[in-house]
User: Which sequence fits this backbone?
């Protein structure tokens, strides 16, 4: 196989780690030395070879371990996967989209064989080989959305489109940045974004909704979002805040480089053909500050971004108390010189 | 095709004369193994190279959304129109290659509905044929009321009666048959959604009756794509691209922009979806707003125009394109 999968955990002993390759392909989200909200949408039609943007659904070295962590979350809390009754067709849409994309983009890892409605799906990394009837949920071990989301990195929201709005009517959410599908299920776009500071006043959500409603089949879009997480936790959910929130108090000047992670979400948006719903996969990438700073430009820039971020955003993103510690640590990577434009590492520019 | 949609090359595999006014065109994929699946109510925009002129007309997909081997559309001949339907009827032959857009759905079913109530007038039947095929496959309660000038011109009414006699109700003008709308709308169970596609008068009649009878706005769905109307030629200055263009009498403003290579994203090309909305920087003259996207406030401010169907008469028009 082309990918060496890591044996690692995202809880307890936290053996999660990024290889040098994973560090270099990390989706660093800051194209300049400061951060401001924007809709920052672009077409999702590939990207540089080896980057996380290249394939429709990126599969990386964390795949098997992430799926194992997801299964643990679901065993403890089955409400992390929900689908309102009218969303089953959209679940099939998502299954079809992912199976076709993965089998075309990673033919050595995934195979899809379609003979009319009789489909055979082979997932080699997870050792799955299932034959089922498309659109007949009784022939799968799980409902279609749950079946495919248990085999796909990232959370998957499926948004119904009606009345000129989007509705959080189905999803699989186990790797989220402190929001709850169980709380948001059935809400519309403005309702589920209500807690976000500043952006409403800036008209961000009106513009974002208009853009999303107009995403068409064959023309998916993407954007990045980010936050900070102490320890490489995939599951930073409100449901488990009592378990992970307290870990934010364990940072010290000695361990901040290893424990503090930048958490980046690659959000993609696909119009689903059969249901006309919108698929909204949210893929989480984690990197420790120590690893991130091995790319000089990124360490320098992150220092400036975190240092200058408005307090409302640092509060909303949950690291206001630890900001002095983080900024102090990152300052050693900031040489005070200008940085190059754009998100790429630009290692060839380094001495 | 536009920055909003991707295009697909297809081969015309069959042309069927449905009646004296309507032809059905069947498209097969040229190179792909499968066409994209779609949802009932979706349309495709057909690109036509008619002499030196490029036309783009939207047509509802009427084939089974689950059938990825082919698409079908039905085109009603409009002898007084700008020529797109005549091109399809008179010039397109079996075996021709055409370019069509990915399916776009501005008239999809609300799948939360307990029952789908359809009203079709004339060629407005086409989106419902796909809706019905989708519902037949997936299950779901529906009922169709289909009005036409005569039985002979009621495209696909025989097929509908043969397959769904208990759900389909036909009305022919030449037999003085009329939908008993108030009784019908008043007698529906809670959770019913209505959908209407047809001439403007019918759409207004159905939607206004439903509102008067207390139907929630979110349960009323209509699709009307307007055909661009001819008019007097007019000049436009395009500020962002530093170009000027004269919009011909038989041409829409959107088509004129496309002719000189200025991108204006579109979806419906019929004044309904809002995608091509364009900011007016300055003007001296009179807008002929023909869309049903802009509201009265927009129109009175004079700061927006929908180039797909709307026109202008006057000295100066400067757009942000």
Assistant:
């Amino acid at each position: 196989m082309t990918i060496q999968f890591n044996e690692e955990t995202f809880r307890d002993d936290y053996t999660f780690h990024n290889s040098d390759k994973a560090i270099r392909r990390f989706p660093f989200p800051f194209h300049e030395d400061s951060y401001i909200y924007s809709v920052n949408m672009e077409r999702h039609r590939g990207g540089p070879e080896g980057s996380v943007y290249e394939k429709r659904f990126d599969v990386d070295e964390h795949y098997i371990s992430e799926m194992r962590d997801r299964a643990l979350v679901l065993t403890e809390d089955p409400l992390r996967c929900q689908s309102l009754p009218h969303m089953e067709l959209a679940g099939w849409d998502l299954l079809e989209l992912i199976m076709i994309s993965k089998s075309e983009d990673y033919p050595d890892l995934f195979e899809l064989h379609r003979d009319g409605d009789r489909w055979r799906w082979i997932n080699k990394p997870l050792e799955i080989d299932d034959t089922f009837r498309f659109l007949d949920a009784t022939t799968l071990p799980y409902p279609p959305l749950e079946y495919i989301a248990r085999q796909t990195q990232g959370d998957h929201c499926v948004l119904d489109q009606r009345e000129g709005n989007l509705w959080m009517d189905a999803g699989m959410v186990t790797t989220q940045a402190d929001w709850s599908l169980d709380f948001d299920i059935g809400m519309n776009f403005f309702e589920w974004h209500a807690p976000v500071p500043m952006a409403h006043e800036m008209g961000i959500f009106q513009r974002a909704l208009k853009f999303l409603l107009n995403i068409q089949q064959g023309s998916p879009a993407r954007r990045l979002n980010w936050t900070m997480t102490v320890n490489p936790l995939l599951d930073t959910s409100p449901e488990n805040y009592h378990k992970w929130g307290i870990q934010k108090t364990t940072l010290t000047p000695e361990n901040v480089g290893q424990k503090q992670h930048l958490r980046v979400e690659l959000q993609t948006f696909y119009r689903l053909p059969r249901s006309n719903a919108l698929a909204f996969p949210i893929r989480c990438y984690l990197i420790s500050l120590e690893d991130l700073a091995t790319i000089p430009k990124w360490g320098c820039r992150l220092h400036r971004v975190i240092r200058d971020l408005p307090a409302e955003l640092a509060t909303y993103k949950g690291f206001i108390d630890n900001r002095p510690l983080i900024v102090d640590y990152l300052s050693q990577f900031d040489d005070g010189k200008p940085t190059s434009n754009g998100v790429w590492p630009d290692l060839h520019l380094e001495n | 095709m536009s920055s909003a949609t991707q295009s697909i090359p297809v081969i015309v595999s069959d042309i069927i004369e449905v009646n004296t006014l309507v032809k059905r065109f069947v498209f097969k994929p040229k190179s792909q193994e499968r066409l994209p699946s779609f949802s009932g109510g979706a349309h495709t925009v057909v690109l036509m190279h008619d002499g030196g002129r490029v036309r783009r007309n939207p047509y509802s997909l009427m084939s089974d959304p689950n059938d990825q081997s082919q698409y079908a559309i039905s085109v009603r001949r409009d002898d007084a129109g700008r020529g797109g339907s005549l091109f399809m009827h008179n010039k397109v032959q079996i075996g021709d290659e055409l370019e069509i857009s990915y399916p776009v759905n501005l008239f999809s079913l609300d799948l939360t509905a307990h029952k789908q109530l359809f009203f079709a007038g004339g060629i407005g039947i086409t989106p419902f044929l796909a809706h019905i095929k989708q519902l037949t496959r997936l299950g779901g309660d529906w009922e169709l009321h289909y009005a036409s000038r005569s039985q002979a011109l009621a495209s696909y009414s025989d097929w509908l009666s043969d397959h769904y006699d208990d759900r389909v109700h036909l009305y022919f003008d030449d037999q003085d048959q009329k939908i008993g709308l108030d009784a019908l709308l008043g007698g529906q169970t809670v959770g019913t959604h209505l959908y209407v596609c047809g001439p403007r008068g019918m759409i207004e009649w159905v939607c206004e009756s439903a509102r008067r009878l207390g139907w929630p706005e979110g349960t009323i769905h209509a699709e009307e794509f307007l055909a661009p109307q001819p008019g007097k030629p007019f000049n436009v200055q395009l500020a962002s691209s530093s170009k000027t263009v004269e919009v011909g009498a038989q041409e829409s403003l959107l088509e004129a922009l496309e002719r000189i290579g200025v991108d204006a994203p579109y979806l419906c090309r019929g004044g309904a979806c809002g995608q091509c909305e364009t900011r007016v920087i300055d003007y001296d003259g009179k807008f002929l707003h023909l869309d049903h996207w802009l509201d009265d406030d927009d129109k009175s401010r004079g700061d927006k125009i929908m180039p797909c169907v709307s026109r202008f008469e006057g000295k100066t028009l400067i757009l942000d394109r």
